Amino acid sequence: MFAAWLGYLLDGFDFVLITLVLTEIADEFGLSTVEAASLVSGAFITRWLGGALLGGMGDRYGRKPAMIASILLYSLGTFACGFAWNYHSLFAARLAIGMGMAGEYSASATYVLESWPVRMRNRASGFLISGYAAGTVLAAEVYKWVVPSLGWRWMFWIGVLPIVVALWVRRALPEAGDWQAEVHGTGTRTGTVPGGEAPGAGEPAGPGTFDGQDKLDAPPSPPTAAPAPTAETPAQAQAQAPAQEPAPVPAPAATPGTGESGPATAAVRGGPPRRPNPFRPLFGDPRRAVANSVLAILATVALFLVFTPLAAGLTWPLALVAAGCLIAFAVQLGGRRSWVVYVALMVTVFCAFLYSWPIQSLLPTYLKTELGYGADEVTDVMYYAGFGTMLGCWLAGFVGDWLGTRRAYALTLLASLAFVFPVFAVQNSLVGLGVLLFGLLALSQGISGLLPKYIAGHFPVETRAASLGFVYNVGALGGAVAPVMGAELAEGMTLAQSLAILTFGLTTLVIVLVGLNVPYRLNRYLLRRTGHHDVTEDHLAAVTATQKPRPAD
């Protein structure tokens, strides 16, 4: 757990460096506010691709190799930023950072969630994401000491240090228990106890847990029979031997979205394990492989043009092209029965980034330009903000295990609305601003510690990392839109007003999407329309060791 948390801490450190030195970079390269904000957006353009590819690597080869590859990629990308000679070279390095960060999210989240007991997985999720906030606090402290004396480039050169963590992870970290058990047929599921039951199996689902529909809240295996007495002598062993050979174990049912039949374990197949292929729906035959490769290139080029000055008035048509390509991928990955889950989760995450990233990306700029704070004062405020987010992630984990993931998410966001406008009303009190920011980010962004748990619970082990990586990082494009939207709104009003409006309005929308369980409700509606009522075949279903399948209604 600590290794994954440390990797995510360094991920946060590397990623937020650009927001701290944005004004220095803009001055050196002569960038406008919108151009400077697009450097923040640049890392989001390739996140969907990095999340899918590195997530697929995690499903096929293990969570640990994917985590190592992700750390190496974002570290080298950050190091390259220090050598940037103009806007375009810096933008290119940010693309590599985005891919690595996306892979780190899916690899670390699935690793931790599959390694902790079922009853503590909200806490595991919150503790993991708190590492990102800790990274922002660390980056703010390093900024105070490094930039005034050495310049902004040294901030990025320091970002190569996570490579040491990658080497340590490669040597010391075991593989995630659930993945090991599901794919290799070795190890044990961390969510089970002897007898095959999850803690609390047979009890009604707690509030906010999708009424028992969370994949991570229950192991799929039925309880095993009690073992026969162990033979102590050869004669006893012969007497205990069955008179007939046992019937062959039937192959498990197909897992939606994988194109393969059930858990690829050696125990089930009677041979070497068959590794999952989460992208079989996209590349299962030559024609489909060519078509989807073209779609991937088209989506990447369209996003690149959208978030650079090259779009030249074609922003909306290009954005629609990119959205169409990504939705096409989601529909194919989800299949007829689950595509709506992929799309609805993408929209939910997109809105979550839209409410949180205007503050994350433009807060240092707001403090410097509109409030006139210097480097030391900005560092103090960022410290309050980062520590508030980190504490909020910890608390979110406990509240999530108490109230349930969905209910905790919605209620905490609702409480955060009370802080939005007061934060941007404070003008001359550094302490007051720090306290209000601490409260706002502890509630609004700290609750994002439950997001990995909320999303990953919709997908089985065999496709969990790729599905989480794709869905989350397509939605993360909201983080690319957010700073540009905030900067453009600020051209007609103050930056404080634009940030407050975006945060309040989009937080309210996320409360509705999560609180009303929109992804599950939409999927249930479509299942009813197509005559399917058995939710045990749906990714939102969860059957504990002693529970019977719940009907779709």
Rg for CA atoms: 24 Å
Q: From the helix content, strand content and strand pairing, which structural class follows?
A: mainly alpha
Mean pLDDT: 76
> What would you call the shape?
globular
Residues in β-strands, percent: under 5%
- Poorly predicted regions: 192-215, 217-270, 535-553
Order of helices and strands: HHHHHHHHHHHHHHHHHHHHHHH
Largest sheet: none
Binned, the helix content reads 55-70%
How many separate helices? 23
End-to-end Cα distance, whole Å, is: 38 Å
Number of strands: 0
Protein name: MFS transporter
Biased composition (Gly residues): 193-205
Main location: membrane
Domain Major facilitator superfamily (MFS) profile: 1-523
Write up what this structure looks like.
With 553 residues, this protein is mostly helical. It contains 23 helices and no strands. The protein has helices spanning 2-20, 22-29, 33-45, 47-61, 63-81, 87-113, 121-150, 153-158, 162-172, 177-184, 234-240, 266-269, 280-283, 286-306, 315-369, 375-403, 405-425, 430-444, 451-456, 461-475, 477-489, 495-515, 518-529. Helix 1 runs antiparallel to helix 6, helix 5 runs antiparallel to helix 6 and helix 16 (375-403) packs parallel to helix 18. It is globular. The two termini are 38 Å apart. 54% of the residues are buried. Mean pLDDT is 76; it is low at 192-215, 217-270 and 535-553.
